């Protein structure tokens, strides 16, 4: 049986905007996520032509409270340590450091909070992996500057990145720049801070915003390498292994184009340091050319010099491409839907479960980039039932995660260098896609419902004991029938 590397980074992942809460505490400013409503219609609301970042009393905003990690971080990290985490991926809320996003002086209370979180991790020998921007652009930068289409944001992000890397770079080795940067292909309001009223529906703006983020990411790489040569910086994309529905050449070509436009475009620039040959063909699909984008020779040189050290990605599901109209049934997914795959089962939220797709994806990414790969999100969103004795038997989650760990093992056997695995929402938090608490991912249950009612008490699910065993055996024992729970 293929072994996982001895230094494999087992852990878990969260995001500030989905669990910290304390949205107006200790000088924190508002982020775009603070004005995105909760509930199943949140995506539809934000994509409406009328949406303008203004809070509305008829909606709820569960991210304001999250699970109050801000006041529970010691307890939560202690539970991560009990599971044996080698690493913990979390994000810094930009508006906790620079409340408006464009200040010159940082908020010391915000820096002190993350100092405390990092030190709490290090106390248990948990390696922090920090995401600099995870769907929480300071609201002021979206309202006053129009989001990432504005090149002024490059300088603001550069200052923010340099500030936190200078503060924490001696203690934090691994950094990620932009979370799921390619998600702007469908949802530019989350990763680029742009809505219909500020140009989100114009694809040229999306590609300009991506360029600006690529340049900002390069500045973060430059800052991290200058601060500490041991620092490694990765990019982060959604990766959804994509299949043509059949052998029809039209579907095969469409699947190729999907991969170029969604799975590879952002990674090609950030990992290889230059725009891919198919860029012009991609731009032409949307009615503009590369000459229409504001990209300077100096910026292109910066991208080439300060490309990322590794590639990290989220993987929840695969997709199917059919442009011939042979199949009508559709499915949901992580920021994207598509044609239903008749060979796969789905989660409660319609996400197609495909562990083999993870092995395929790992091979594809390594073949293409030849850099270390890090799976920083993977998991099953499901409704959990608390039994009368307080137990939560989430065998469905164990089955999902087990099959994906086995797929990672297979990819390692194929020769793919995988750095680590941090399942998403290692503790229950607010769902990014629906704003719900009932869509749970964690090994740790948090007593909180979709209306914000509950005690916030933490309790261990069966998967907690299972993952503890997985880490303790470095991935050798994936069974669940003899767990002490």
From TrEMBL:
Gene Ontology MF: a single term: hydrolase activity, acting on glycosyl bonds
Signal peptide positions (record): none
Pfam families given in the database record: Glyco_hydro_1
PANTHER family: 6-PHOSPHO-BETA-GLUCOSIDASE ASCB-RELATED, GLYCOSYL HYDROLASE
InterPro entries: GH, GH_1_N_CS, Glyco_hydro_1, Glyco_hydro_1_AS
Protein name listed in UniProt: Glycoside hydrolase family 1 protein
Coiled coil region boundaries: none
PROSITE patterns for the chain: GLYCOSYL_HYDROL_F1_1, GLYCOSYL_HYDROL_F1_2
Enzyme active site: 377
Family: Belongs to the glycosyl hydrolase 1 family.
EC number: 3.2.1.-
Biological classification of the source: Bacteria, Bacillati, Bacillota, Bacilli, Lactobacillales
Keywords for the protein's UniProt record, in alphabetical order: Glycosidase, Hydrolase
């Amino acid at each position: 049986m293929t072994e996982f590397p001895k230094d494999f980074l087992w852990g878990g992942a969260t995001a500030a905007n989905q669990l910290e809460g304390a949205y107006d505490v200790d000088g924190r400013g508002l982020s775009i996520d603070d004005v995105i409503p909760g509930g199943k219609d949140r995506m539809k609301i934000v994509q409406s032509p009328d949406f303008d970042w203004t809070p509305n009393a008829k909606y709820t905003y569960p991210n304001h409270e999250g699970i109050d990690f801000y006041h529970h971080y010691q307890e939560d990290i202690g539970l991560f340590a009990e599971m044996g985490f080698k690493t913990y991926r979390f994000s810094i809320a930009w508006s906790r450091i620079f409340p408006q996003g464009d200040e010159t002086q940082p908020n010391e209370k915000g820096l002190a909070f993350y100092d405390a979180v990092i030190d709490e991790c290090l106390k248990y020998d948990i390696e922090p992996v920090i995401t600099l921007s995870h769907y929480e652009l300071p609201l002021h930068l979206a309202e006053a500057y129009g989001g990432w289409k504005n090149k002024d944001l490059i300088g603001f992000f550069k200052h923010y990145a340099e500030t936190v890397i200078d503060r924490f770079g001696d203690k934090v080795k691994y950094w990620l720049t932009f979370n799921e940067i390619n998600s702007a292909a469908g949802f530019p309001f989350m990763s680029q801070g742009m809505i219909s009223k500020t140009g989100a529906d114009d694809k040229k703006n999306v590609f300009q915003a991506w360029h600006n983020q690529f340049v900002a990411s390069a500045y973060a790489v430059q800052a991290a390498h200058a601060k500490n040569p041991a620092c490694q910086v990765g990019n982060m994309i959604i990766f959804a292994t994509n299949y043509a529905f059949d052998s029809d050449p039209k579907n095969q070509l469409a699947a190729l184009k999907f991969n170029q436009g969604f799975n590879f475009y952002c990674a090609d620039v950030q990992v290889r340091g230059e725009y891919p040959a198919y860029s012009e063909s991609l731009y032409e699909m949307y009615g503009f050319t590369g000459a229409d984008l504001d990209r300077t020779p100096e910026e292109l040189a910066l991208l080439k010099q300060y490309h990322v050290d590794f590639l990290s990605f989220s993987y929840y599901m695969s997709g199917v491409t059919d442009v011939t109209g042979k199949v009508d049934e559709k499915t949901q997914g992580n920021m994207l839907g598509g044609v239903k795959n008749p060979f796969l089962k789905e989660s409660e939220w319609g996400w197609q479960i495909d562990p083999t797709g993870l092995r395929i994806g790992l091979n594809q990414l390594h073949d293409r980039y030849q850099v270390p790969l890090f799976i920083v999100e993977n998991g099953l969103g499901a409704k959990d039932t608390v039994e009368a004795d307080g137990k939560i038997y989430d065998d469905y989650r164990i089955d999902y995660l087990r099959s994906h760990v086995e797929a990672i093992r297979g990819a390692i056997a194929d020769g793919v260098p995988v750095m680590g695995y941090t399942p998403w929402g290692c503790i229950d938090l607010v769902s990014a896609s629906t704003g719900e608490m009932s869509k749970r991912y964690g090994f740790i249950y948090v007593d909180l419902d979709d209306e914000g009612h509950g005690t916030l008490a933490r309790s261990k699910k069966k998967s907690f004991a299972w993952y503890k065993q997985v880490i303790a055996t470095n991935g050798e024992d994936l069974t669940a029938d003899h767990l002490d729970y």
